[in-house]
């Protein structure tokens, strides 16, 4: 089965042919470890876990290398360390454990390699030295910067000119730069900051050089797929291409895949709006499969609107699907040769998970009519996507710990509250709000619209 992936660099959907079918290679930008990951961070974890499963199925797990890095030296990490008065290594190790727990919670397989930036400083210094030697980088006041005007293809990934990129982005203003868009490869470390000895003095790497060094070490100078969130297209991935291709005179990655943004109830997620949700916060209310399934209902390249209703709907679907498995009178075995061809065809078309889920719904209907063959295909197809991976009793017992939500009751009370507010009967409106709060439901009134979510 031919895989078609959308390549951001060429803005086209193309047939995927690996450089070497016996050594298929994928690199995905991982977390910067200073705090709990939020639900937006979970999206690339799930998206590229599915791509990883697809590659393993087609080429064999022994022929696929998936690298997802960890950024453990960064301005945000230093800031968090100072704010918490905590040693950086203690903070990063604790946060790495948080991330591993979160990735496991949403059903993601462990990548083959998970390199930390701080373990690869010599590789970064080596690339920087090569760039200086080739006049693609220069030293200034203890900093080493990449000269963007020396790379003719700068801006090709984001599809913008250098002037447009500078005008539309925040670039660090510094009088030692030859060009405002020149970006940092190495910077001096202050006395209270982590630092390593280098030809340019004690310092630390810029963010972009980290991924170039780690991807090259484990995947080579050219590899098959580079993935990450859409927010990384510029400047991070644009800068990775510039420094790696300038250093090696080779194409950096054959495919660039980016997942779309995530919003919360139609709004951008931010702490200032009070709608910032970490993956960890969801664990007491939903099983990880609900989060995973809910993410798959939207195509990975499209914006995803995260709502409480969609989570509840996803939970109801999985409850129903688990029931048909749990009430079957024989144990079902996992068999990779019993995965739905229609579902795989949907995934082969640029990881079309909504269509894949639609195929599962059709299989469920046939299986629910008593077709045992369809039931086995349904079960194995779900497992391939990372759902129905628990047993029915465990799933059911966990669900019994959560609140039994009656959506009709909630919506009816909200309607009565809105009527009371329209009639200016504010004591009654407040009474209904309190009644909903006692049920574990939090209301939010904005733009003449009332939305609700479960209290964590």
**N/C terminus separation:** 44 Å
> What is the oligomer described by this structure?
single chain
Architecture of the largest domain, according to CATH?
A: 3-Layer(aba) Sandwich
What does the overall shape look like? globular
Mean pLDDT: 92
Structural class: alpha/beta
Rg over CA atoms? 25 Å
- The CATH class designation of the largest domain is Alpha Beta
Largest sheet: 4 strands, parallel
Q: What is the share of helical residues?
A: 40-55%
Number of helices: 16
**Count of discrete domains:** 3
Uncertain stretches of 5 or more adjacent residues: none
Record the strand order, biggest sheet: 4-3-9-10
Structure description:
The protein is built from 16 helices and 15 strands. The protein folds into three domains: 14-262, 3-Layer(aba) Sandwich (Rossmann fold); 284-399, no CATH class; 407-454. The chain is α/β, with parallel strands linked by helices. It is globular and about 70 Å long. A hairpin with a 2-residue loop joins strand 14 and strand 15 (449-454). The model has no long low-confidence stretch (mean pLDDT 92).
Question: Briefly, what is this?
Answer:
This protein has 456 residues and is α/β, with parallel strands linked by helices.
List the helices and strands and how they pair.
Blueprint: E1 4-7, E2 12-15, E3 24-28, H1 39-59, E4 64-68, H2 75-84, H3 88-105, H4 121-133, E5 137-140, E6 143-146, H5 162-168, E7 183-188, E8 203-205, H6 207-219, E9 223-229, H7 233-248, E10 253-259, E11 262-264, E12 267-268, H8 279-282, H9 288-296, E13 304-306, H10 308-326, H11 341-348, H12 353-368, H13 372-384, H14 392-399, H15 407-422, H16 426-438, E14 441-446, E15 449-454
Parallel strand pairs: 3-4, 3-9, 9-10, 11-13
Antiparallel strand pairs: 1-2, 5-6, 6-7, 7-8, 11-12, 14-15
Helix pairs in contact: 4-6, 4-7, 6-7, 9-10, 10-14, 11-12, 12-13, 15-16
């Amino acid at each position: 089965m031919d895989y078609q992936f959308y390549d951001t660099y060429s803005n086209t959907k193309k047939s995927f042919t690996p450089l070497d079918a016996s050594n298929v290679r994928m690199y995905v930008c991982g977390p910067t470890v200073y705090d709990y990951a939020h639900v937006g961070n979970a999206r690339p974890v799930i998206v590229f876990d599915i791509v990883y499963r697809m590659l393993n199925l087609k080429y064999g797990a022994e022929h696929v290398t998936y690298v997802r890095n960890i950024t453990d030296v960064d301005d945000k990490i230093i800031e968090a360390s100072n704010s918490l008065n905590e040693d950086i290594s203690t903070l990063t190790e604790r946060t790495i454990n948080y991330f591993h727990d979160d990735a496991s919670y949403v059903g993601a397989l462990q990548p083959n390699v998970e390199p930390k930036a701080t373990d690869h400083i010599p590789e970064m210094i080596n690339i920087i030295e090569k760039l200086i030697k080739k006049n693609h980088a220069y030293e200034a006041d203890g900093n080493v910067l990449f000269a963007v005007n020396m790379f003719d293809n700068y801006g090709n990934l984001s599809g913008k000119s250098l002037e447009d990129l500078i005008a539309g982005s925040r670039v660090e203003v510094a009088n030692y730069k030859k060009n405002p868009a020149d970006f940092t490869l190495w910077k001096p470390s202050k006395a209270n900051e982590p630092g390593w000895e280098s030809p340019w003095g004690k310092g630390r790497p810029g963010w972009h050089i980290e991924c170039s060094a780690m991807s090259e070490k484990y995947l080579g100078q050219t590899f098959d797929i580079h993935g990450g969130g859409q927010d990384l297209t510029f400047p991070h991935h644009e800068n990775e291409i510039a420094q790696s291709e300038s250093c090696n005179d080779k194409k950096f990655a054959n495919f660039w895949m980016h997942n779309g943004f995530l919003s919360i109830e139609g709004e951008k997620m931010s702490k200032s709006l009070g709608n910032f949700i970490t993956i960890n916060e969801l664990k007491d209310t939903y099983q990880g499969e609900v989060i995973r399934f809910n993410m798959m209902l939207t195509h990975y390249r499209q914006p995803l609107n995260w709502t409480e209703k969609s989570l509840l709907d996803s939970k109801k679907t999985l409850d129903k699907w688990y029931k048909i498995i749990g009430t079957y009178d024989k144990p079902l075995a996992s068999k990779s040769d019993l995965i739905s061809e229609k579902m795989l065809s949907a995934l082969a078309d640029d990881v079309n998970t909504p269509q894949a889920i639609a195929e599962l719904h059709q299989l469920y209907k046939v299986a629910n009519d008593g077709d045992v063959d369809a039931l086995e295909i349904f079960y194995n197809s779900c497992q391939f996507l990372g759902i129905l991976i628990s047993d029915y009793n465990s799933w059911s017992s966990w669900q019994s710990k959560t609140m039994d939500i009656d959506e009709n009751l909630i919506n009816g009370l909200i309607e009565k509250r809105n009527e009371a507010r329209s009639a200016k009967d504010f004591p009654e409106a407040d009474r209904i709000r309190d009644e909903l709060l006692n049920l574990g439901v939090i209301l939010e009134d904005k733009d003449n619209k009332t939305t609700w979510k479960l209290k964590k």
